[in-house]
Amino acid sequence: MSSVFQTYLQLGFFHIFNLQAYDHLVFLLALCAPYVLQDWRRVVALVTSFTVGHSITLALATLGFMQYSPSLIEVLIPITILLTCLVNLRKAGQRPNPKAPIVLALPNLLAVSFGLIHGLGFSSYLRELLGHQSRPVLELLAFNVGVELGQLLIVSLILILGFIVLRMLRAARRDWLLVVSGAAAGIAAILLLQHV
Question: Model-level pTM?
Answer without folding.
Answer: 0.89
